[in-house]
Amino acid sequence: MDAFVVPVIHHGGRLERGADGELDYVGRELTKFDAMDDVDFVNKKGLLTLIRDL
Q1: Residue 17 belongs to what domain range?
Q2: pLDDT tens-digit profile of 1-54?
Q3: What is the CA radius of gyration of the chain?
Q4: The total number of structural domains that make up the chain
């Protein structure tokens, strides 16, 4: 079984629970990055680099 991580960064808004119980992102932006297929090497420094590049 392959495992991978897809970083999704919510920034500039807020999460609200809708009438159906689902969380919706209300506000500014949602950025979805490419899949990181080597989960052994996902680390804080790498994620901070992604965030700084927004």
Answers
A1: 8-52
A2: 577 888 888 888 888 898 898 988 888 788 898 888 888 888 889 889 888 888
A3: 14
A4: 1
